[in-house]
Design brief:
Helix content is 71%, strand content 4%. By secondary structure, the protein is mainly alpha-helical. The longest helix is centred in the N-terminal third of the chain and has 57 residues, at 43-99.
Amino acid sequence: MRVTAMMEQQQFLYNLENINTSMQNVQEELSTGKTLNLPQNDPVAVSQDMNLAAEVSEINAGLSTVSSGLSWMNTTSTALQGMISQLQEIQSNVVEALNSTSQSGGSLAGIEASVNQLIEGIYQIADQKIGDRYIFGGQAWNVAPSSYTQQSGTQPIGASSDVSYEITSGVSISVTVTASSIFLTPPSGAKDLQTTLNDIENDLQSGNMSALSSDLNDLNQNLSNVINLNADLGARIQRMTAAQNQMQQYQTNLSNLKGGIEGADMAQVITQFSTDQVIYEAALQMGAQILLPSLVNYLPN
């Protein structure tokens, strides 16, 4: 079969178009740093990359939840430590009142005033917030705990129920300590903390040392209860922190794997681009020799 000038022109333009397309693809890889810019680049790799992107998105959502939960739990722990410190001071004041055999009315009044301030401080801690949510409110997060723990009011629905965060599918961790568990749940054989604090105030005011001694026993058990609640919260913080570390490691592994699939080898891409440029220029020069000058003159060089 005879090769005509038209056939040479068509073959030349076809080859030139292929080289130009290859250069455009390489230029896109240079600008984006990725080999997967279009689904047709590598359909199998694109599918894998999309699945990894979905997993990374899920991990990021889980990490956001964990971070929010840890913030809440750490704030709660700090508040509990402040509450424990105040209770220990009340304990010291009650012991002082009981051990002073010659307490004057003025001395007892001073201890009573100090204890009253400490008790008010405890209820102020109970009403601490994060944003518009009471940290000790449980699922009744919009109701001030002091409204039902200080005045013996009716507990709102959900006040004794903890809030749990689902960090991954099927895995939830409680992030709260409720005011109900602190003030209204009596330890074994003792009064609840709300009643104990009220009794201490009344017995100091009346100077009833016998009753105050019983109050001290109740206070000791209530203090142990609050310490135990904080210890339990600390264990949950450790578990949440461990989950966060594992998720961050998994996130890093997924990101590295995703980058390995979609990331371009820049040294190889630059080399390929240089090679394509040389081939393109050589093709133009060759075309100038075998095709009509009027055609080649219009092609970019």
